[in-house]
Amino acid sequence: MCADSIPRLRVLIVDDSPFMRRVIRLLLEDSGRFEVVGEAADGWEGLHWTRILKPDVITLDWHMPLLDGREMLKRLRRESKVPVVMVSALPAGVDVHGEDPALVSVDVVVKEFSDNPLDLSVFAKELTTKLVNSWKAVQQRKGCSPSSSLYE
Predict the structure, then answer these.
(1) What distance in Å separates the CA atoms of residue 16 and residue 34, rounded to the nearest whole number?
(2) In a domain, 150, yes or no
């Protein structure tokens, strides 16, 4: 199904840190462009809630207990093409994509914060932009033409 315009996107947040889940939720909801439909603390919960909630997009942490972000994404790709934006505190130089086909189209937002409030606003802008763009890319692959930008 193609949307004539970009709807309010339904997001599932998958991160083992309750603090980060809260930060991401607040940033996304504050933008007015997203509805957080669920949260998961590990990859197994993420897969479970993805199947039930059918979100438009997912934010996914890389390092988590039980089932990490990479393994969750590999399993998810066997059953769904839902757009995923990796949100993680990755060290500089780590290649999250590697040669794994499940990771090729995944965008990344690095968690880097300081006491400077501007850092959080930059993080929010990058995250919301990448979530929307990943959703648009899936729509275009389905033959849809979503409107050009949410951020004009």
Answers:
(1) 21
(2) no
